[in-house]
Amino acid sequence: MKRRLLLLAFALLLLRMPALAQTCGSLNNTITLSSQAQVNAFSTTYPGCTQVLGDIRVEGADIVDLNGLTNIQQIDRSLWIINNPLLTNMSGLSNLKSTMGFQLTNNPLLTNFAGLESLESAGITVSNCPAINSLSGLQNVKNLTSLHLTNTTIADFKPLTSLEKLGYVSLSAPNPNIKNFDGLQGLTELGGFLVAQGMHIDDFKGLDNVTKLGAADFWGTFGSLQGLNKVDTISSWLVFFPNTNVPNLKGFDSLKFVDMLIISGPSFTSLEGLESLTTALSYIRVVDTQITSFKGLGNLENLYLEATGNAALVSLEGFENVHFSNLILAGSPLLTQCAVPSVCMAIHDKALAIGNNGTGCNSVEEVRETPLCQEILPVTLLSFRGLRTPEGNKLIWETTSETNNKGFEIQRSHNARQFETIGFVTGSEDGKSLRTYAFTDRAPASPITYYRLKQLDHDGQFEYSSLIAIKEGHLASTIYPNPVRGRLNVKTPNTAQPFNLKDQTGLTVMESSVLPANGIDTSHLQSGLYFLSVGEEVFKVVVQD
User: Fold this and answer.
1) Which of 21, 155, 250, 448 lies 20 to 30 angstroms, CA to CA, from 5?
2) Element housing 44 (H / E)
3) Cα–Cα distance for residue pair 215/207, rounded to 1 Å
4) pLDDT of residue 507
5) What DSSP letter does each residue of 375-422 carry, written as one string?
6) How much is the pTM?
7) Which helix (H) or strand (E) holds 538?
8) In 3-state terms, what secondary structure has residue 361?
9) Are 454 and 423 in contact (CB under 8 A)?
10) Range list of H helices, 410-502
């Protein structure tokens, strides 16, 4: 009896062995299938494999189907289906549920994504598959970490009926049938988008319900910006490249917050449309446009502005109440009047750069000597910095002159938008000598805490300092130089983390599970814009060969 039980247990173990052997491949290796015979033999070469730990590359002149891959349910890295002139469908991937990356390149007979009805999560790149005219087959995808389309005939995004989360979308020419983002009406957040040079978009229908946007790159031409009317936050950048045809910002009627805003090119004649914008956290750059004033930016509370080469600029209208944390103003020969209160307030305590404009606004000295600027003598704030201490976040600031100074409100924020007053330090009334102040926040509210000072006069007038941020724990990664020619250095407290470099079509050009000790070699790359992922951080990199 005991022997029978042992035999039964052994038989059950044998039955379970295929179920236990579910993985194949390895993290840093690629399984390459270069013929139909190798595709057909996958299940015998890798018996019981349902999860691929690395990449799979399918590339072969005689490959007509993927039926040998039906057992695969998960690919931890990427699935590359490239250069398959006879492949007509992907029905062999009917059990695939997730893959980090899905690259389709040079598959001339594929017309859609039929066969991927089980797919729920992926980052998809399609390049040079001109017969693909639909996203049908992706109706059960819930999470698209990215979607990059180049040289397709896809017309809309309507098949994505189950989509809950969408990362960065890149549209590169030719995609002649895509005229808007119709089909994405269910999204309220979007990781970002790039409409590349050569693309024409009529409008942004389909993004009508998006309120939070990660980033936006406008490189093509556009009928209008309608469809973006509900976007109130862009957490990273909003960039208009020089060759776009956009004349103004009408369409961003609800935009309140952006980290970085770059507007360039002769098509811009005004900044109208930004009237709701109150925060540009890093800076605004306006370069080589035909704007005549800064009307549209009047509600900004704190501004770092670089405005250069705006030949038609004649007025600083729009800056009556703006507080400048820094200002670079150059290359506007028609601009002769820069003595407005906001500039005068900043010119006494900031290292501004003003030059190559019209007479009267041709240097910092010219502006400082105007009657208006001579009348305005605010508290001169020499420095404002912060550091973490065992007692809390310590703020230190210095002044070199004070007139009618009641004191300083210390204001704190967890998001650089909504501030609360957490303390007050009395000023010295009047004085021309160096004075140092300090305040400790003993209860920081979040891992990153933002601070500013609100300097108050006895007559009720006030002005804000620039923002500083104090971070809890390790510093974030930084990259340099950028633009880069040759070697790109990555400074990070954790070098044992993966990196991935993509071009603007979304194609991965370089990746590794760890950062190289001597930086990333970009010397073999073509000049252009790239996206570098380091861990969970993403950087824009400009390569100059």
Assistant:
1) 21
2) helix 42-45
3) 14
4) 83
5) H----EEEEEEEEEETTEEEEEEEEEEEEEEEEEEEEEESSSSS-EEE
6) 0.69
7) strand 537-543
8) coil
9) no
10) none
